[in-house]
Batch of 2 targets.
Target 1
Amino acid sequence: MNAMRPLFADPKTDFVFKKLFGTEEHKPLLVALLNGLLELDEAHRVVEVELLSPEQRPMVQELRSSIVDVKCVDARGAHYVVEMQVLNVEGFEKRVVYNVAKAYTTQLQRGQHYPDLNDVIGVTICDFELWPQREAPHVPMLSRWCMQEQHGGAQGLRQLQFVFLELPKYDTTRPPCTAVEKWAYFFREADSLEMVPEVLAERPYVDALEAARTAGFTEEEWDAYIRAGMAIQDERGALSLATKQGLQQGRQEGRQEGRQEGRQEGLRALRAALSEMLRQRGWVPGPREQELLEGCEEMETLQRWLVQAMTATTLSDALR
């Protein structure tokens, strides 16, 4: 059976992500990942982390498409919430903020006071573009967010911070050079590698590859890895099914050129498929959006909205 396995497992899947970055055995990998993505200098580098026990972790109802639960505290007391998100789903940004805020507030035990609270930093790796806008202001592959005073731009209230690594923004036209680029390359390409590439042949990346080497998996671990991958595919398939069906039905019913009746049937089918996709994403069109949907007479526009609705973060983005 091992001959059928890839050399390295996909670190974006639930099982492998937690194996690499959420276990005592591989804590040095978590330290290296945090230092790399936070771009910390020597004076401020994370030197040690303590993984929180399950009872210490904030109770958050996670979505199936979210791979989460590496929560840790460094030697200075700062808390980190590290997660891998493979699909862009409705409410994702709000859930990230909630998760970090929950980790912040649950630090206080009975009898403790506000000065005892430590900063919380959310580190999220996305296998999709969360901010796809190309024109200025463009959000880079690695972005860091904290509160800012709106008049003068001064930064403050740094108790809650957010770091996002958007893997699709990785520049594939050149070899990775920085630590951030090497981590992005690792997450994107590990499961397709047939050998350890030269750019990752140094620590901590080679250690991460060794930890993901499938030859070292037990049969139980391999089964868990396969199940995690299937769960991701099931979620992705559920989101795309309505799009495929709507496009196919719309094209079939509108294929008879010159026949207005056939064209209207195609338009109705596309509107129905789009409405169903919006419903699945949890969006309820208001009067303006409903008027826009019902008044659209261009099949190409409806098809574009249907495709956008599958990955858009807001209803307005889906119908732009």
Target 2
Amino acid sequence: MDRLDAMAAFVAVADLQGFAPAARKLGLSPSGVTRLIAALEDRVGARLLQRTTRSVTLTDIGARYLERARRILADVEEAEASAGAERTLPKGRLVVSAPVGFGRIHVTPLMSAYLKRYPEVSGELRLSDRMINLVEDGIDCAVRIGHLPDSSLVARGFGQMRRIVVASPDYLSQRGVPATPAAIAAHDTIQFGALAASPDWRFVEAGREIRVPCTPRFTSNVADAAIWHAEQGGGLTRVLAYQAADAIKAGRLQIVLADYEVPPLPIHIVYPTSRLLSAKVRAFIDLAGETCDWQFATR
């Protein structure tokens, strides 16, 4: 048994939740994948996968082994690719995922510059605010704002993002500027639904996190709608800093409660550890490092 082939088969079965799809991905027969997994389990002396007629799930030992196997395979792939990667021109198709608003404003220009620099690459930018599985959806890399719970991804940081509360100057002159998070109760609020599942707004006060319940007068799943309503004097809204940057610069909105903001969210470009970092992905990440200023954490 080739240990690396067996590890690769195990990771594919875990990612795709089945022997048949793993076999198709690896170009093997389902029985061949089954033999590799069985030999791997014999070698480690433990069952890694729980099989039923309808599903394949990880055992506790399998879940721990999966994380280590990913790292080993990624290290091997990186070592094999490192010598020739710099000499290989990016080519083929690059698929990038990003949040809708941030992708439209900041990732689209990056993709355009990338395609101009590397004419042998065709690009696809998929904009979505839902969490996409990179392996299952065939994504080469993704821009993500927020903390990364998925340990199967390799991440490179590119900046930070504040979450801010804003309102129009006219609204604040009429209703007053809230001095503390508790004062929000006396104000109209506008909820941008993509930020949180609940209407509670989080702040930091006296070194501890607090949650302020809000009953919004207006709710939208699109930041532009929430910001526009705030500009019209509709109340306070809580958005990501880049979403309100133009309105703040133009004086249509004003930041409040800045001293109570929670720590900024990290901005990463991520890619799967189970996938070889190809020249096209490396070049995209390098270009982002050269040209993108995604620091939205300064006041």
